[in-house]
Amino acid sequence: MSDGSLTQDEIDALLQGSASFDLGAKGPSPSAAVGITPAQRSQFEGLLQKTIGSQASNLSMLVTKTANYGPIKVDVLQREKLLQALEDQVVQISMPFSEGLSGEHLYILPESLAVTIAGLMMGQQGIELNEAALSALQEAIGQISGPVLTALGDSLRSTVLTEPPTATRIPKDALSISSNTLVIVTYPIMIEGEMPADMLEVFTPEQVITILSKATTASPSVSPKTSPTMGQSAGFAQPSMGPSMGGFQGAPVSGVAAPFPGMPFGSTPPMTPPNVQPVQFPSLQPGPPPAEHGNISLLMDVYMEMTVELGRTKKLIKEILGMGEGTIIELDKLAGEPVDILVNHKLIAKGEVVVIDENFGVRVTEIVSPMERMKDLT
User: Taking the domains of the chain in order of start, what are their residue ranges?
Assistant: First the structure.
């Protein structure tokens, strides 16, 4: 799986690729009007650049192909400038902040990139951007945005959450952006065997300023305190050393006692051997569980959820969407194999299925040992 870096061939493809948003050459930036300096824009760019490896890894798992990100770019643009760079039809994934930050927040994908990601997730080619495809995109952006929200939370020293993603295919003029000045993050994406394209993430200037103000707030530096040396204490003059370094010259220093009685001044005190004792480690051999404390009868009336699991399997989204009456789902258990008995989703026993008065039941055939249960918890 890729770490987010690009090969030279992929870089060349990105430079020649299609479906990229051309935000235009940088002219007079509106950043000064909203208090964002070029240094802050660069700092925000560096903050998000650290997340592209994790984003690429998440996207690779979703599309089951190698995905790479190119170097990201952060621009401060007016809304009209952004709309000029977009295609007529785009896919908007809205994720307004709900905790840690507030206000609008969304992703913008060209149709070609949206079709590629949704098609690979669903195992189909040439799909339409219908409800199923948009649902797949919501899942993808929810996974991709995870590293970004984590990085923002680390900078703010708090949890940052968003509303669930909502994907819609809309004309560019219908973008749900109320702010006139926007901070646009461009992510160049290269998926193995597909045309490169750009994905945009939209923040407001107020959000970026809040993030950077918390990130740059540092505790006052405290210089390490040095022990006063000879001649540096208040009230004492620094003695000068003679050419032979054999002793002090000038007036003797008064009022300073030797560190230990009976020792010449300036000599090193004797070192006391440390008291070293061997470390006593607890036994690693499995033993009986510790004795229970308290009155277990107080818990006798507590209900616990017990589940009998016949088997499990994994399916692609396209297979799940294609299920209907009569569909047969193959499980990972063989016929006649013991079923799992779980309490609060933890395996405690195994058994065999029986019929009791026209009802299904399970006869317990094996109790899972405490050691095996501990392994399941680790």
Answer: 8-215, 304-312+330-378
Looking at the domain 304-312+330-378, which fold is it?
Answer: Surface presentation of antigens (SPOA) (2.30.330)
CA distance 146 to 107: 13
**Beta carbons within 8 Å of 307's beta carbon, 6+ residues apart:** 341, 342, 343, 345
DSSP conformation class of 298: G
Concatenate the DSSP letters of all residues of 35-85 into one string. T--HHHHHHHHHHHHTTHHHHHHHHHHHHTS-EEE---EEEEEEHHHHHHH
**Tokens 């050419």 identify what position?**
243
Q: Contact at 8 Å (CB) between 91 and 115?
A: no
Query: Closest by alpha carbon to 140, among 181, 191, 89?
Result: 191
Average pLDDT over the chain, rounded to whole?
78
Least confident of 32-36, 39-43, 214-218: 32-36
pLDDT at 36: 82
pTM for the predicted model, two decimal places: 0.54
Helix (H) or strand (E) holding 111: helix 111-122
Q: Which CATH superfamily is domain 8-215 in?
A: CheC-like (3.40.1550.10)
Q: pLDDT tier at 73 (50, 70, 90 boundaries)?
A: very high
Q: What is the pLDDT of residues 304-333, one digit of tens each?
A: 888 988 888 888 888 888 888 888 888 888
The CA–CA distances, whole Å, from 315 to 61, 118, 141, 174, 210 equal 15, 16, 20, 36, 42
| R_g over Cα of the chain | 33
Residues in the chain: 378
CA distances from 147 to 1, 57, 144, 219 (A): 17, 10, 7, 26
Q: Identify the burial level of 292 via C-beta atoms within 10 angstroms of its C-beta, where 0-12 means exposed, 13-18 middle and 19 or more buried.
A: exposed
Angle between helices 205-215 and 131-156 in degrees, nearest 10: 40
- State the pLDDT at residue 178: 86
